[in-house]
Amino acid sequence: MTAEDRTVEDGTQDGARSKTTAALRGLMGQCPACGRGRLLRNYLKPVDHCAHCGEAFGHLRADDAPPWMTILIVGHIIIPAVLSVEQRYEPATWVHLTIWPLLTLLLTGLLLPRCKGVVLGLLWSTGAPGSERA
Ligand SMILES: [Zn+2]
Q1: Which of 47, 18, 1 is nearest to 9 (CA)?
Q2: How far is the CA of 35 from the centre of ligand 1 (A)?
Q3: How many Å lie between the centroid of ligand 1 and the Cα of residue 100?
Q4: Which residues face 7 on adjacent strands?
Q5: What whole-number distance in Å separates Cα of residue 53 and Cα of residue 27?
């Protein structure tokens, strides 16, 4: 049997955990192991076990990484947009105070669970034991 024959469903060999695949599946909110079950419930809470393959995720702790990642991304989108709009259109202050906080909250709400999925997928792919494994 060659190494290519042993390639499993996610493109890894011998069941090795691909960081890229795990991160992408986490980004989509899917189980990093099988890509079919859900990774998060109630917005940000990881499921204890994948409903499809049974892989355990409840012990993984992402801690502050997802909020930091979200702040980094949202800040790099919002701040240049604020400066660009101000330079081009010079809108009234109330326009800035209306648009940017709402856009920031919207982007944060959309990106935070995706960032958490990426972090959990990467943690899972590295075989990190988590802080609460028995
Ligand atoms: Zn699964």
Answers
A1: 18
A2: 6
A3: 38
A4: 13
A5: 18
Yes or no: say if 32 and 120 are a contact pair by the CB < 8 Å rule. yes
Task: State the helix-helix crossing angle for 19-27 and 93-126, rounded to 10 degrees.
Answer: 140
The one-letter amino acid code at 131 reads: S
Distance CA 62, CA 21 (A): 18
Amino acid at 38: R
> Could you read off the pLDDT of 74-133 as tens digits, one per residue?
999 999 999 999 999 999 999 999 999 999 999 999 999 999 999 999 999 998 877 655
Both tokens of 78, joined, read 């919002």
User: pLDDT, tens digit, for every residue of 44-83?
Assistant: 999 999 999 999 999 999 999 999 999 999 999 999 999 9
Q: How far is the CA of 99 from the centre of ligand 1 (A)?
A: 39
Give CA–CA dist 30/19, Å, rounded: 14
Residue labelled with tokens 């409840």: 58
